[in-house]
Design a protein that fits this description.
The protein is mainly alpha-helical. Helix content is 68%, strand content 1%. It has a single domain (4-538), classed as Cytochrome c oxidase-like, subunit I domain (Cytochrome C Oxidase, Chain A, Up-down Bundle). It contains 17 helices and 4 strands. Helix 4 (127-157) packs antiparallel against helix 5 and helix 6 packs antiparallel against helix 17. Keywords: Electron transport, Membrane, Respiratory chain, Transmembrane, Transmembrane helix, Transport.
């Protein structure tokens, strides 16, 4: 079990994360209702965009950042077997996230910053929205620094030892976030805030979008890091098996670190300010990110097979029936992989320069990223919380049947939500619209699909409420003696790990180098192109 000060720190991060998640979930369901045929047109469409901004900011910045931070602080003690160095700094980082969230959400709630979480210049909101986002990011940077400091302290105490996989993967995620968040930070500090504060009246919207693309896609891989850490370090142990390959896991996290950054401009395929050569380069690197995902699927499937065979399974497929399907971690993994498969297949369309024309800015995009993040990633956030909760509270969390119901509700709800979005996206339904005229000939056939997505959202809302209830009940459970927390052991325990897979120097250099190559030219070109600024459009 974690020591008491660290327990409180991790619980504070998790509870704030999951409460923000649930509030954002409510906003998302409201959005689906008011733009469905079940509701008349919204009298003030600005309320819709206000809600979308709050939903996206909470889900995109606050929720996953707090989960990653809390999980990282737990990993330091559980994997490195040492007390967290810099506990006061950790609380300071948490405080900045809390203050930043409040500072950002107040102008959003007042209708002064309905710019969506992607900012969308030349739209310019209240400066406090951007200041709040910056405070959240700065708070997360403190976490990044603490992860590096704690790893260094462990290395000094254990010279030449192999860094535990959980900590290696955790720091890969931290370093990825530190670098990818630079793009949005530059956009806010040097392009948006001077306009929001009244020092300028124009903004280079094209350059701003390029800087945000620096963050826009790599942030997804920051979101998935806790889920992938759970895949490799929690699932095999939880289901009674072993990790197929520790080295393969490290390679996967390294590839995410290197290839997550130089791909963001595939979000700008339809933007004229970026040349086709740069777009092609980013499309190629986007395809490279599929490699660590495929390695993960192979490694985890092999680890699951090991668990099935250790439980008496035999034959080519008979071992599948021997898996502990009543274990919430096993169920979460299976459901996550199904959603990852569908979401990844959709991603192949998004990364294609030609096919993107058909689905760009349609509900297909909404379906894709909800299936990846809200589906495959968030369901593993649930699972890792269930796994850690007894070690955070010192109390039993035995509601396995309710956990399985909650996970199934989430899976079914997410599939019901996102599959119709993909379909109406193919038909051309635009996203981010406050209302649709379902009496129009081209939209009438889509009305049923929209009602179905609303029904899926109701299932997600029920799942989210049940999840919070299960966690809250865990604080009232019986106090139980707990064994020492274990991460998954590899099949070949004690095997030597090459130095290149035990450190980050080479990989950070490659990450930065590839980013400079892929972003340096378009940024330099846009900076040196005259007369690219356009009048800002303030949100009143």
């Amino acid at each position: 079990m974690l020591n008491i000060p660290n327990r409180r720190l991790v619980l504070a991060h998790f509870w704030l994360a999951f409460l923000a998640f649930f509030l954002a979930l409510i906003l998302g369901e409201w959005q689906m209702y008011i733009r469905s045929p079940l509701h008349t047109w919204l009298g003030n469409p600005e309320l819709y965009y206000r809600s979308v901004t709050a939903h996206g900011s909470a889900m995109g910045y606050v929720f996953p950042t707090l989960v990653a931070m809390g999980f990282g602080y737990a990993i330091v003690e559980l994997a490195l077997k040492q007390a967290l160095v810099g506990l006061r700094w950790a609380w300071a980082g948490f405080g900045l996230v809390v203050v930043g969230t409040v500072v950002a959400m107040v102008p959003v709630a007042l209708g002064k910053a309905s710019v969506l979480y992607t900012f969308y210049p030349p739209l310019i909101g209240n400066p406090f929205y951007y200041i709040g986002v910056v405070l959240v990011v700065v708070g997360s940077w403190i976490w990044v620094a603490l992860m590096a400091v704690n790893l260094r302290a462990w290395r000094r105490a254990n010279p030449g030892a192999t860094v535990p996989l959980a900590m290696f993967a955790n720091n890969a995620g931290a370093y990825l976030w530190a670098w990818t968040s630079v793009g949005a930070a530059i956009e806010i500090l040097f392009l948006i805030l001077p306009v929001a504060l009244g020092f300028k009246t124009t903004i280079d919207a094209g350059l701003a979008r390029v800087f945000f693309s620096w963050t826009l896609h790599a942030i997804v891989y920051f979101w998935l890091m806790p889920a992938y850490i759970a895949f490799y370090t929690l699932v095999p142990r939880a289901i009674g098996g072993r990790l197929y390959s520790d080295a393969m896991a490290r390679i996967s996290f390294i590839l995410f670190l290197v290839f997550s950054m130089p791909i963001g401009i595939h979000h700008l395929f339809q933007d004229p300010q970026v040349g086709t050569g740069v777009k092609f380069l980013h499309a190629v690197f986007t395809a490279m990110v599929s490699v660590p995902t495929l390695l993960t699927i192979f490694t985890i499937c092999a680890s699951v097979e090991i668990a099935g065979r250790l439980r008496g399974g035999a034959g080519s497929f008979a071992w599948i029936a021997r898996l502990p399907w009543k274990n919430p971690m096993m169920l979460a993994l299976a459901l996550s992989f199904i959603m990852l498969g569908f979401g990844g297949a959709g991603g192949l369309i998004n990364m294609s320069y030609q096919l993107d024309f058909a689905i760009h800015n349609t509900q297909w995009i909404t379906g894709h990223f909800h299936l990846i993040f809200g589906g495959a990633i968030v369901i593993m956030y649930f699972a890792l919380a269930y796994d850690l909760w007894p070690h955070l509270t010192g109390r039993a969390l035995n509601a396995w049947k309710l956990m399985r119901v909650q996970l199934w509700l989430w899976f079914v709800g997410m599939m019901v939500l996102t599959m119709p979005w993909h379909w109406v996206g193919i038909l051309g339904m635009p996203r981010r619209m406050a209302y649709y005229d379902y009496t129009a000939t081209d939209l009438a056939p889509m009305s049923l699909s929209v009602i179905i997505t609303f029904s899926g959202g109701l299932l997600l809302l029920a799942s989210g409420a049940l999840f919070l209830w299960i966690l809250a009940s865990g604080h009232r459970g019986a106090t139980v003696p707990l064994p020492a927390f274990r991460f998954s052991a590899p099949v070949h325990a004690g095997a030597r790990i090459p130095a290149a897979l035990n450190g980050f120097g080479l990989w950070l250099a490659l990450m930065i180098g590839l980013s400079v190559i892929n972003y340096g030219f378009p940024i330099a070109q846009l900076i040196n192109t005259p007369n690219t600024a356009v009048p800002a459009v303030p949100i009143r």
